[in-house]
Automatic annotation (TrEMBL):
Keywords: Chemotaxis, Cytoplasm, Hydrolase, Methyltransferase, Phosphoprotein, Transferase. GO terms for cellular component: cytoplasm. InterPro entries: CheB-like, CheB_C, CheY-like_superfamily, Sig_transdc_resp-reg_Me-estase, Sig_transdc_resp-reg_receiver. Its EC number is 3.1.1.61, 3.5.1.44. Residues 14-130 form the Response regulatory domain. It comes from Halobellus ruber. Residues 143-208 are annotated as: Disordered. PROSITE patterns: CHEB, RESPONSE_REGULATORY. It catalyses: [protein]-L-glutamate 5-O-methyl ester + H2O = L-glutamyl-[protein] + methanol + H(+); L-glutaminyl-[protein] + H2O = L-glutamyl-[protein] + NH4(+). This is Protein-glutamate methylesterase/protein-glutamine glutaminase. The modification 4-aspartylphosphate is found at residue 64. It is found in: Cytoplasm. NCBIfam families: PRK00742.1.
């Protein structure tokens, strides 16, 4: 079931602001209302958040993390248990807040945004735009998909605890772009005939190429899905993995650390000039585009740029996928996950046109089906899978006969 913004009847998104600082509540209210958001209520502590949600029935809640009586995480849990409503966390730039922010996502929050500073600066228009866009996006999130991914745990060894049974169920496509398909089922090229996916003999280890490259792009609702994908990639697959998750600067390093603890791969935030090897995964840093180039030995070099945002975001999925098409030698797969907008759609087109394999997350498990839907409608998506089937579909492509 999707949250439908505009419950006020005029299409305007309605928000409740929760923060223990009266000044900050006033600042956030002003930014949101200037951006066309109707702030219908406020709460000064997490203990009052649920009452405000019940009273005002908003489309979205902006939630501070640190509050004196009941913190943001506890408030998220109460809201999700009693009156499920999309929650956008407001997090300060601090390492400890980054960890707590990810915990809030684990408890059901849809997304987070950097908390605006108290001073009025030249960056305030950008802050307002980002805040309003995040609120609008969160208000349209499918809470059933968010809850499903939030409840997906990992064991201490980093392996996913989500059961995968022959492809995890049927996936649906949108816009008529391809047949409904299960992971491991025959693969159908657009306009072509079905060909069997690579399979190994019972009990035999899959045969992987010497090196393959997987590019994963995600936005709203993506962190838990990315964790699910990387947790299901065996080290033996010899992949180089590039992750582009729309996320503010200062949080991607902690995100990489979380992924590293849940994956068999060596996961770190990407550094400019480094080379990525099989068995390694790199996360694009916030506020930087991640670009790949190839050296004379075919090794993949990573560079970070601060060129203009694409689709209003930096890092942009399209930038990384386009550069991978130009520089990657060997099999290339691109996966586009949940998120609003169209970042990654052109990248998917480029990968498919160059002979790579493309996978999109399905609607049922996407918090926001915007990016995957547009990619599917383009006709360049080879497979549509639920979140827990993305890795299996990619591995089927990389497995050699």
């Amino acid at each position: 079931m999707s949250a439908t913004a505009g419950s006020g009847g005029d299409g305007t998104t309605r928000a409740v602001v929760v923060d223990d600082s009266r000044f900050m509540r006033t600042l956030i209210r002003g930014l949101l209302e200037d951006g066309g958001i109707d702030v219908v209520g406020e709460a000064g502590d997490g203990s009052d958040a649920l009452d405000a949600v019940i009273e005002h029935d908003p489309d979205v809640v902006t939630m501070d993390i640190e509050m004196p009586t009941t913190n943001g995480i506890q408030a998220v849990e109460e809201i999700m248990a009693e009156r499920p409503t999309p929650v956008l966390m407001l997090s300060a730039h601090a390492e400890e807040n980054a960890d707590v922010t990810f915990e809030a996502l684990d408890r059901g929050a849809v997304d987070f945004v950097t908390k605006p500073g108290g001073e009025v600066t030249s960056s305030m228009p950008r802050v307002k735009r980002e805040l309003v866009e995040k609120v609008e996006s969160a208000a349209r999130a499918d809470l059933s998909a968010t809850a499903r991914m939030a409840s997906t745990g990992t064991d201490e060894g980093g392996a996913s605890t989500v059961p995968v049974e022959g492809g995890t169920g049927a996936a649906t496509t949108a816009g008529g772009a391809g047949a409904t398909r299960r992971a491991g089922a025959p693969e159908r090229e657009p306009g072509g005939s079905a060909t069997p996916a690579a399979e190994s003999a019972p009990g035999a280890e899959p045969s992987y190429p010497e090196v393959g490259t997987l590019v994963v792009g995600a936005s709203t609702g993506g962190p838990n899905v990315v964790e699910c994908v990387l947790a299901d990639l065996p080290r033996a697959a010899n992949l180089r993995v590039l992750v582009v998750q729309h996320m503010p600067e200062g949080f991607t390093g902690r995100f990489a650390t979380r992924l590293d603890g849940r994956s068999a791969y060596d996961v770190r935030e990407a550094e400019s000039g480094e080379r990525i090897e099989p068995g390694e995964a790199r996360v694009a840093p916030g506020d930087h585009h991640l670009v790949t180039t190839s050296d004379r030995n075919g090794r993949l070099r990573l560079d970070l740029t601060e060129t203009e945002p694409v689709h209003g975001v930096r890092p942009a999925i399209d930038i990384t996928m386009a550069s991978a098409v130009e520089s990657v030698e060997g099999p290339l797969c691109a996966a586009l996950l949940t998120g609003m907008g169209r970042d990654g759609v052109d990248g998917i087109r480029r990968v498919a046109s160059a002979g790579g394999h493309t996978v999109a997350q399905d609607e049922e498990t996407s918090a926001i089906f915007g990016m995957p839907r547009r990619a599917i409608e383009s006709g360049y998506v080879d497979a549509v899978e639920p979140a827990e089937g993305i890795a299996e579909r990619a591995l089927a492509f990389f497995t050699e006969d």
